[in-house]
């Protein structure tokens, strides 16, 4: 089992050293250093949460709320720091998806066999 933990440690270090992870980290740090972008992101999230809560509670969503969310979204996506962060996030998440798929491809046969009833029973 210690070998598996060591392999996981090496995988984590390897992922952290990829260009995708480094670009994501740098883009996140750059965006966090942009007060205007962070304020827009926070306002967008608050507005989005407000609308999701109304929807969940079967309350009507006002047209003004929809317009406000759209305006915040347009302002946010026009920010260079947000654009760079979003692109880096997509690249990093794609890498992580591929890593997980590869790991799961080796485990699905084992885990699937446990879930299926045995023919011998």
Give your account of this protein's structure.
It is built from five helices and no strands. The protein is an all-alpha fold and 121 residues long. It has a domain of 82 residues.
Task: Compose a concise summary of this entry.
With 121 residues, the protein is mostly helical.
How are the SSEs placed, and which strands pair?
Layout: H1 2-16, H2 19-32, H3 35-56, H4 63-77, H5 80-115
Helix pairs in contact: 2-5, 3-4
**Unreliable stretches:** 117-121
Proportion of strand residues:
under 5%
Class by alpha and beta content:
mainly alpha
Shape: flat
Query: What distance lies between the first and last C-alpha atoms, to the nearest angstrom?
Result: 31 Å
Report the total helices.
5
Q: How would you sum up the major sheet?
A: none
Rg computed from alpha carbons, rounded to a whole number of angstroms: 22 Å
Q: Please give the share of residues in helix.
A: over 70%
Tally the beta strands.
0
Order of helices and strands: HHHHH
Average pLDDT score: 92
Which descriptors apply to this entry?
mainly alpha; 0% strand; disordered C terminus
């Amino acid at each position: 089992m210690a070998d598996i933990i060591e392999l996981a440690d090496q995988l984590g270090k390897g992922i952290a050293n990829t260009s995708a992870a480094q670009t994501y980290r740098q883009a996140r740090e750059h965006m966090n250093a942009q007060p205007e972008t962070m304020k827009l992101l926070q306002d967008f999230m608050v507005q989005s949460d407000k609308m999701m809560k109304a929807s969940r509670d079967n309350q009507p969503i006002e047209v003004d709320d929809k317009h406000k969310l759209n305006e915040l979204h347009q302002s946010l996506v026009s920010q260079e720091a947000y654009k760079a962060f979003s692109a880096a996030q997509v690249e990093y998440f794609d890498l992580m998806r591929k890593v997980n798929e590869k790991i799961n491809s080796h485990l699905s046969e084992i885990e699937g066999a446990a879930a299926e009833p045995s023919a011998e029973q």
